[in-house]
């Protein structure tokens, strides 16, 4: 059996290896997280998940983002169940599609319309199609290392893609306005869009908040060259600011890609955009068999309304602040220097000088043993279901994990 996983997980892995390529693929492939991470999960409730062997974890990954109110949130489940009783996948969308679009247009100042799909990649790809349809141009500027999805144009692995599929991307360095200007100059007037995440959340690296000058600068650059500014809010959306993640900077995008947290785990994504791009959006042929299913839309409506009415973002910030302060104090007490980066509700912790991630891997595996599920090289996610009591319990686990990491690596 894979070391550290229980017998049920091991048995499922063995069967999976026969019928699923590599036993698992994509970002939820447990082999990527560490040898002791369980692969299969059977239940989630609030801020907890249970693996196939019944082990319980305080969930600091929230399924890599989708779970924003906690697993099986009653208001979301009730809305989804009510819709499911009427039907999900019909000959046309339900009235809930209009209600959800109205809700987004009402909440998001840069949104005059919304289109829906299923995954973040659908939304980023569709946003670029709108930008290209509107401008008649080809190239897209993106930050080096930024993840925008797994279609051939953006997947981080070249396997199965052709150079042509990436030929229209020009890269700049996040938070470096001069490099974005330079990337634009290289495109020689042919830029359809600048796509950018609200902060730098690349895997394997400390996170970086956006420099306000960079934020205002890319907006001005897009305006100057007549390109659409696309915010990829797939990861941060509905966790930082319901109005959109750059609203706090006073900067509005032309298009925004949303997904992940939008339906508290139900499969849904959206592109929102401004009136100036409405006609271009109208011209696309962009669709999918399941894009109009009503259950996920009902779940999204309930998720967003609950976040709004109960100030879910403040709850996540409060939990995130407690976690960050607690971890800082524990690290110091155990003689570690750590870096905690990103917004407190989308946090990450790295050990100073741990370039091989050896300490980070050891620490996260130790957390797992003590019932805390977090990640060694990808940012974590908090939800509105994380109470002070839950964070306190998580911190008991991380304290023991720091102690074991100290014992393993020794002082100094
Ligand atoms: N953009 C960003 C910023 C993301 O974090 C992700 C998912 N990690 C995507 C796009 C792609 O979303 P999906 O996996 O739902 O296609």
From TrEMBL:
Sample GO molecular function, one term: transaminase activity
Protein keywords: Pyridoxal phosphate
Keyword Glycosyltransferase: no
Keyword NADP: no
Swiss-Prot/TrEMBL cofactor(s): pyridoxal 5'-phosphate
Family: Belongs to the class-III pyridoxal-phosphate-dependent aminotransferase family.
PANTHER family reported in the protein's UniProt record: GLUTAMATE-1-SEMIALDEHYDE 2,1-AMINOMUTASE, GLUTAMATE-1-SEMIALDEHYDE 2,1-AMINOMUTASE 1, CHLOROPLASTIC-RELATED
Protein name per its UniProtKB record: Glutamate-1-semialdehyde 2,1-aminomutase
């Amino acid at each position: 059996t894979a070391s550290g996983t229980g017998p049920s997980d091991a048995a499922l892995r063995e069967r999976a290896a026969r019928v699923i390529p590599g036993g698992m693929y994509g970002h939820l492939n447990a082999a990527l997280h560490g040898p002791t991470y369980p692969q299969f999960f059977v239940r989630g409730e609030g801020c907890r998940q249970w693996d196939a062997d019944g082990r319980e974890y305080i969930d600091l990954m929230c399924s890599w983002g989708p779970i924003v109110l906690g697993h099986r949130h009653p208001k979301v489940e009730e809305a989804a169940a009510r819709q499911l009783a009427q039907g999900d996948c019909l000959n046309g969308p339900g009235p809930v599609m209009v209600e959800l679009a109205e809700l987004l247009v009402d909440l998001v100042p840069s949104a005059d319309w919304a289109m829906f799909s299923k995954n973040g990649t659908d939304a980023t790809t569709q946003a670029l199609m709108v930008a290209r349809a509107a401008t008649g141009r080809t190239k897209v500027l993106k930050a080096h290392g930024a993840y925008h999805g797994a279609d051939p144009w953006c997947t981080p692995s070249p396997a199965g893609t052709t150079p042509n599929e990436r030929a229209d991307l020009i890269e700049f360095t996040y938070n470096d306005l001069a490099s974005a200007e330079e990337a634009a100059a290289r495109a020689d007037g042919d830029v359809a869009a600048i796509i950018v995440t609200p902060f730098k959340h690349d895997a394997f690296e400390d996170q970086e908040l956006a420099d306000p000058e960079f934020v205002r600068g890319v907006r001005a650059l897009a305006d100057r060259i007549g390109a659409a500014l696309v915010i990829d809010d797939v990861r941060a959306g509905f966790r930082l600011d319901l109005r959109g993640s750059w609203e706090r900077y006073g900067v509005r995008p032309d298009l925004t890609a949303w997904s992940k947290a939008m339906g508290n785990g139900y499969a849904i994504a959206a592109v929102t955009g401004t009136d100036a791009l409405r006609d271009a959006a109208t011209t696309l042929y962009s669709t999918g068999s399941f894009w109009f299913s009503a259950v996920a839309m009902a779940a999204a409506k309930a998720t967003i309304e609950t976040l709004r009415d109960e100030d879910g973002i403040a709850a996540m910030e409060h939990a995130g602040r407690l976690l960050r302060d607690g971890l800082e104090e524990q690290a110091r007490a155990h003689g570690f220097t750590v870096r905690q980066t990103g917004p407190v509700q989308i946090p990450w912790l790295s050990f100073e000088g741990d370039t091989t991630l050896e300490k980070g891997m050891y620490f996260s595996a130790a957390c797992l043993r003590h019932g805390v599920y977090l990640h060694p090289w990808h940012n974590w996610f908090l939800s509105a279901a994380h109470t002070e009591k839950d964070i306190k319990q998580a911190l008991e686990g991380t304290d023991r994990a720091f102690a074991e990491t100290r014992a393993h690596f020794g002082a100094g």
